[in-house]
Write a structure and sequence with these properties.
Number of domains of chain B: 3
Largest sheet of chain A: none
Number of strands of chain B: 10
Radius of gyration of chain B: 21 Å
CATH architecture of the largest domain in chain B: 3-Layer(aba) Sandwich
Helix content of chain B: 25-40%
CATH class of the largest domain in chain B: Alpha Beta
Shape of chain B: globular
Distance between the termini of chain A: 49 Å
Oligomer: heterotrimer
Order of helices and strands of chain B: EEEHEEHEHHHEHEHEEHHHH
Number of helices of chain A: 11
Chains: A mainly alpha (262), B alpha/beta (275), C alpha/beta (283)
Largest interface: B-C, 41 and 42 residues
């Protein structure tokens, strides 16, 4: 199931995979913030290129490029809308500065998507769940998250089994007009939902039986410790933030149009 | 009825589940497909109604290649009862549940009505006609699932792990039910790892391991062959276990039926003058 | 000393018209291996859930009578308090494992209790070793087989070091070989660790030989209770619909035919075979 492939963590051991998810997340949020404070194309381009060494270090190039392709459609929409708006508002002309500005906005979107993509490609759900547990998020949420991830493959298999069972009773999912096709999915959805409810009940029984709620102070088998790599990334993040704020406030940024004397 | 020729099958992105399986199932046969979890039993059997199509090789159902027809068309003759009835049940009443497949196959309303009544009676579910299937007990839900498949009277019935979670009495009823189906001339295939159950009904046995057929033959022979069973990680039926230990004294090995065992031991008593 | 004692225990699920268990009075001694059996719907699953407090606390409904487990009055204790004494292993392997790695699942109960990390590590490793799954500790529960999953469930319960482990048809979904492995693990825990075991099972042919205390239920009531050999040597159990081991049945049939093999009623094929060998050698 290719949809779930996108969520599947790649079990590769790279320096990026081993980084503390909280640190990685702080980095991604910083990139997000920096992308927001700039609207010129050059700094945004710089920000985009900045992701590349991380991608290469993590060895997730192929998947990263795939997510780029996925973002391409929306990016194109953003570009066209922006050019279109300036076209209408500047008297039906397409000017180079307008194109550059539209490109910049598109690039901002791409940078946002891509930095998050790297985060999810290099952070396993366990790691993420652990980070959630350790960041003082109420345990219920971290637990709900990891349990949900844990059962995704189970649900996927079950939905396949249910579809098979109903197909074996003559259900033809592809046939019929739009409304009929939606109705065809009822015999698949209902068993899936009922099964999910039954599963929740069994899980709850198991949780209760293993002392859920026994103590307000829950401990953890694992601990997230910060290593050298984490401190390096923290330094990089802080560096980027400071540099960006400085540049934004004091350094005039030329536009490409200006540089090319258009 | 079914002819499988050198069937190979791989799931997407995964290892080969079937590595060249060939088998013929005749009309009216009673067959048990056995093997450890992961041996490929369910995978193989899902080729009989086209749910899975072979990656290479062919599967012919009544002479028609499964790749050339739809699951719905094949299902008309091959009824598949899945292990977990809750993967099928979705209707508001038992009646509607049983009518589902009949409507899918295009039966006329009056025929649907008759068939539903017939299936309900066959499985002693008449009193639950208007009940919601979700309110019934586990065993009753299994019967509803079975009724909903029998309703369209397929020539062949495939039961996937029908004995799981069943108590002794339920298993006896299942045994009787299978015999009834056989008497009606239906071909019955069960996928199971329940050795004792198979020992009771003594079908033809196909033993699978790692995507291949390891052994095939009369239930009695396969289930009492210790080498074959050890290779496929199946346990000997209890009676066979007893006789395996008695073989140094000259007792026959191929015994799985308790009445046969009784007779053999009593004969031995006669000839050896036991107390 | 009785580690489980019930007096006239009666329970009705909320919205049910009749009780699932009725007037159940049983007594389990410390260290016993109890086998609870009976036809579907006889109330054995309900009884299990009374031992650790799921009934009445989780299921609500009406519980009458008395029940004392490990010295505690179950009605007065939270389920999480009972979890210190009683571990419950369920039928479906997949739906009782919720962490993303085996060892995290085994640690779950200890984490809930707030056990410090080092102590937790030791207990988790010990439980993993006792159930023979130490090598699987970093695997995801979905990747392992049903038999392995059940062993994880047992380890998860074992790590909390309960005096009693209750298992509700733990091998329903498993093939006979995996089932035997599970029973071996449980039997080992009973013999070597002295843990009291309550096992609910249909498949007496696989389990009767382990038990020293048999409880047969039917329609919510306890019909027979006591020594497995005594109970299974009578006709009555068969009449309820309990599947007695084939070896035992054959023994009874031969006895009726006048062939007395002496000794105890056999509960396994090995025992019967040995008896036959003895009888045949002595001419």
């Amino acid at each position: 199931m290719s949809v779930f492939d996108g969520l599947k963590f790649r079990k590769v051991h790279s320096p990026i995979h081993d980084l503390d998810p909280r640190v990685k997340f702080a980095y991604v949020i910083s990139v997000f913030a920096v992308a927001i404070i700039f609207y010129q194309i050059i700094p945004l381009l710089f920000l985009f290129v900045l992701q590349v060494p991380f991608v290469l270090l993590a060895r997730v190039q192929r998947q990263w490029l795939r997510s780029l392709r996925g973002a391409a459609f929306l990016a194109a929409v953003i570009f066209i809308v922006n050019v279109g708006t300036s076209y209408f508002y500047s008297g039906y002309k397409v000017t180079p500065p307008a194109v550059e500005s539209a490109l910049a906005l598109t690039l901002r979107f791409v940078v946002l998507v891509e930095s998050f993509s790297v985060f999810f490609l290099t952070t396993s759900p366990d790691h993420l769940g652990l980070a959630l547990e350790e960041s003082h998020v109420p345990y219920e949420f971290a637990f709900a998250f990891t349990t949900a991830v844990r059962f995704v493959p189970v649900l996927a298999e079950e939905s396949q089994t249910i579809m098979d069972a109903q197909k074996a009773r003559g259900l033809e999912l592809e046939k019929g007009g739009f409304m009929k096709r939606i109705r065809n999915y009822i015999p698949v959805l209902i068993p899936l939902i009922v099964s999910a409810i039954r599963r929740s009940l069994e899980l709850a029984e198991a949780m209760e039986s293993r002392a859920w709620g026994a103590s307000k102070k829950r401990t953890n088998l694992y601990a997230l410790k910060l290593h050298k790599g984490d401190y390096t990334l923290i330094a990089i993040t802080v560096g980027i933030l400071i540099a960006s704020i400085y540049v934004r406030l004091y350094v005039p940024i030329p536009t490409v149009v200006h540089l090319l004397k258009l | 009825m079914i002819e499988a020729r050198d069937v190979r099958f791989s799931y997407a992105n995964r290892v080969e589940a079937l590595k060249g399986v060939s088998l013929t199932v005749k009309d009216g046969e009673f067959l048990a497909v056995m093997g450890q979890n992961g041996a490929g039993k369910s995978t193989f059997v899902k080729h009989f109604n086209g749910l899975l199509k072979p990656s290479s090789g062919t599967v012919l159902v009544d002479g028609v290649e499964t790749t050339k027809t739809s699951v719905a068309a094949l299902a008309r003759n091959v009824g598949f009862v899945f292990q977990n009835p809750d993967h099928q049940l979705f209707s508001e009443t038992v009646e509607e549940e049983i009518a589902f497949a009949l409507k899918n196959f295009g039966f006329q309303p009056d025929v649907v009505e008759d068939r539903v009544t017939w299936a309900l009676e066959l499985l002693s579910l008449s009193q639950y006609r208007k009940t919601s299937p979700f309110l019934l007990s586990g065993g009753e839900r299994k019967r509803v699932a079975l009724a909903s498949v029998l309703a369209w009277d397929p020539k062949m019935l495939i039961l996937d792990e029908p004995t799981i979670g069943q108590d002794h009495e339920q298993k006896e009823k299942l045994n009787q039910f299978i015999m009834q189906m056989q008497q009606q001339g239906k071909t019955v295939v069960i996928v199971t790892h329940d050795v004792e159950f198979v020992a009771e009904c003594n079908p033809r046995v196909v033993l699978m391991k790692d995507g291949r057929i390891l052994a095939e033959g009369e239930g009695k022979e396969i289930l009492t062959n210790p080498q074959v069973l050890a290779e496929s990680s199946i346990v000997l039926p209890q009676i066979a276990q007893v006789f395996a230990k008695l073989s140094p004294l000259g007792f026959p090995k191929g015994v799985i039926d308790i009445y046969e065992a009784e007779k053999i031991i009593l004969d031995a008593k006669e000839s050896r003058r036991l107390p | 000393m009785a580690i489980i004692e019930t007096k006239n225990l009666t329970y009705t699920y909320p919205g049910a018209t009749k009780p699932s268990i009725l007037d159940v009075s049983i007594r389990v001694e410390k260290g016993e291996f109890v086998l609870v059996t009976g036809p579907s719907g006889c109330g054995k699953t309900t009884l299990c859930r009374c031992f650790n407090g799921l009934i009445p606390h989780f299921y609500q409904g009406e519980l009458k009578g008395e029940i004392t487990v490990a010295g505690e009055d179950v009605l007065k204790r939270h389920t999480y308090e009972m979890a210190r004494h009683v571990g419950l292993v369920f039928q479906n392997p997949e739906n009782q494992l919720f962490a993303l790695s085996v060892e995290k699942d085994v640690a779950f109960g200890l984490e809930n209790f707030g056990v410090p990390r080092e102590e937790m590590r030791r207990k988790v490793d010990w439980a993993l070793n006792q159930t023979g799954i130490y090598d699987l500790r970093e695997r995801s529960p979905h990747e392992i087989s049903g038999g392995q999953q059940q062993r994880v469930a047992i380890a998860a319960v074992l790590a909390m070091e309960p005096e009693i482990i209750v298992l509700d048809e733990p091998t329903s979904f498993l093939d006979p070989l995996s089932a035997e492995k599970i029973f071996d693990v449980i039997y080992d825990l009973n013999r070597k660790q002295g843990i009291t075991v309550v096992l609910v099972e249909h498949r007496l042919d696989l389990t009767a030989k382990y038990a020293n205390h048999l409880v047969v239920m039917d329609e919510g009531k306890v019909r027979y209770e006591g020594d497995p050999r005594e109970i299974l040597s009578t006709e009555e159990t068969r009449l309820i619909g309990v599947g007695i081991p084939k070896a035992t049945l054959l023994y009874q049939m031969l006895k009726k035919d006048g062939l007395n093999l002496g000794g105890n009623t056999p509960l396994s094929s090995d025992e019967l075979a040995d008896q036959l060998l003895e009888a045949l050698k002595a001419k």
